[in-house]
Every structure is written in C-alpha cells, then in structure tokens.
C-alpha cells in the first residue's frame, strides 16, 4: 500500500518542475500536517486528480504516493507511518 501524502510533500511536475503540495484537509492531519486529497493544489497551480478508492475526507479521495495531477505529474513522497489502499 502507498504512503499518504501530506502538505509540503514533493511533486514532480513535467510542466513546471519540482514543487510541493500546497493545500490539504484543514481538519485532518498526520504528524501535524494536513492530509492531501483529490482537488487539493500544488505550488505550481496543479490539482491532484487521483487518490484512494477506499478512503475519503470530506467526499474527496485521500492522495497517496504515485497519484497524479492535472499537469501530468506524480506525487513523489509521503508519510510511511500511514499507508492507504
């Protein structure tokens, strides 16, 4: 299972270069960092477009390492203390 992605984790954007997760669930966090979900933004303006089929927060799928963005990028790192299918 992939690790959950949090605010500040890395994203490789083929359009803009390296950037980080810029938004997440305000009311849910892991180790003090907001959990990223489908629809949340990255520093380059991209939005997360794929996430967990089995876990949602506020109706939005939770983002995991390997999930993608609307700029064609991939979420690169996460918090291995919480793995999500």
Explain what this protein looks like in three dimensions.
The chain is mainly beta. It has one domain: Tumour Suppressor Smad4 (Sandwich), CATH 2.60.200.60. It contains no helices and nine strands. The chain has strands spanning 3-4, 10-13, 17-20, 25-30, 33-35, 56-57, 60-61, 74-75, 79-83. Strands 3-2-8 form a three-stranded antiparallel sheet, with no helix packed on it. The chain is globular, with a radius of gyration of 11 Å. The termini are close together. This is PAAR domain-containing protein. InterPro entries: PAAR_motif (IPR008727). It holds the Pfam family PAAR_motif.
Topology:
Elements: E1 3-4, E2 10-13, E3 17-20, E4 25-30, E5 33-35, E6 56-57, E7 60-61, E8 74-75, E9 79-83
Antiparallel strand pairs: 1-9, 2-3, 2-8, 4-5, 6-7
Summarize the structure.
Helices cover 0% and strands 35% of the residues.
Return the structural class.
mainly beta
Give the terminus-to-terminus CA distance: 5 Å
Q: Report strand order across the widest sheet.
A: 3-2-8
| Coarse morphology | globular
Q: Residue ranges: pLDDT <50 for 5 or more in a row? A: none
Helix share, percent: under 10%
Number of helices: 0
| Biggest β-sheet strands, sense, barrel | 3 strands, antiparallel
